[in-house]
């Protein structure tokens, strides 16, 4: 059974973008800036908190991508029909939302 091109692109590109965004954060390569990273009053007030929060963000982004790919792999064997794309996008959104919630809980404790 072949998948439509958009679904294949979705399954490759979006998790790859999450990982690509997470690696520099995880490795501490992102200095405090106005565009990229975890931007809260707490992270902007301290570089130590900035780097710790962004390291956690990198971990959670990469985990969200891996979990999403795993669930998508399992769902590939289920007969979802034309509803496949909304289900996949919903799973992606849920995983990214959970990562953001876990991150904010952890950042409050730093």
Notes on the protein architecture:
The structure is a single chain. 75% of the residues lie in helices and 0% in strands. The chain has 110 residues and is mainly alpha-helical. The longest helix has 29 residues, at 47-75. It is elongated and about 50 Å long. Helix 1 (5-26) packs antiparallel against helix 3 (47-75) and helix 3 (47-75) packs antiparallel against helix 4 (84-109). The chain has helices at 5-26, 41-45, 47-75, 84-109. The protein has one domain (5-109).
In short:
By secondary structure, the chain is an all-alpha fold.
What is the topological layout?
Layout: H1 5-26, H2 41-45, H3 47-75, H4 84-109
Helix pairs in contact: 1-3, 3-4
What is the first-to-last residue Cα distance?
Answer: 48 Å
Helix percent reads: over 70%
- The average pLDDT is 90
Question: What is the strand content?
Answer: under 5%
Number of helical stretches of at least 4 residues: 4
Determine the oligomeric state from the structure: single chain
The gross shape turns out to be elongated
Number of strands: 0
Taken in chain order, the helices and strands follow as HHHH
Structural class: mainly alpha
Number of domains: 1
Give the biggest beta sheet: none
| Uncertain spans | none
Mind telling me the C-alpha Rg? 16 Å
């Amino acid at each position: 059974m072949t998948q439509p091109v958009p679904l294949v692109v979705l399954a490759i590109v979006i998790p790859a973008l999450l990982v690509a965004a997470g690696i520099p954060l995880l490795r501490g390569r992102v200095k405090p800036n106005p565009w990229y990273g975890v931007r809260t009053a707490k992270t902007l007030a301290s570089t130590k908190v900035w780097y710790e929060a962004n390291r956690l963000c990198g971990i959670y982004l990469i985990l969200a991508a891996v979990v999403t790919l795993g669930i998508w792999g399992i769902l590939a064997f289920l007969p979802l029909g034309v509803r496949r794309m909304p289900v996949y996008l919903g799973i992606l959104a849920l995983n990214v939302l959970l990562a953001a919630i876990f991150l904010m809980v952890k950042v409050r404790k730093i």
